[in-house]
Write a structure and sequence with these properties.
Helix content is about 90%, strand content about 0%. The protein starts with a helix and ends with a helix.
Length: about 80
């Protein structure tokens, strides 16, 4: 597997947790949505897993950029 795939797999767990927390807090804090929490919370779970993959795939190269930049600077001055 590529480095981007490995980073995005590790990152997707954290992104999914954050998305679920935001969705759950929104559903439970708004009174009109709180009445329908039994149907909305499973939807929040599914949506957090569905959105975590593309978001983590987008973020993975940006997490690696600092390391690559520092490595290229080291190569120039050696």
């Amino acid at each position: 597997m590529s480095t981007r795939t490995n980073i995005s797999l590790l990152l997707s767990v954290m992104v999914s947790s954050v998305l679920f927390g935001i969705g759950a807090a929104t559903v439970l804090s708004i009174k009109s949505l709180s009445a329908q929490a039994s149907t909305l919370l499973p939807l929040v779970i599914v949506m957090s897993f569905a959105l975590a993959g593309p978001i983590s795939w987008y973020l993975a190269p940006r997490l690696r950029a600092k390391y690559l930049r520092e490595e290229s600077i080291r190569e120039r001055y050696q």
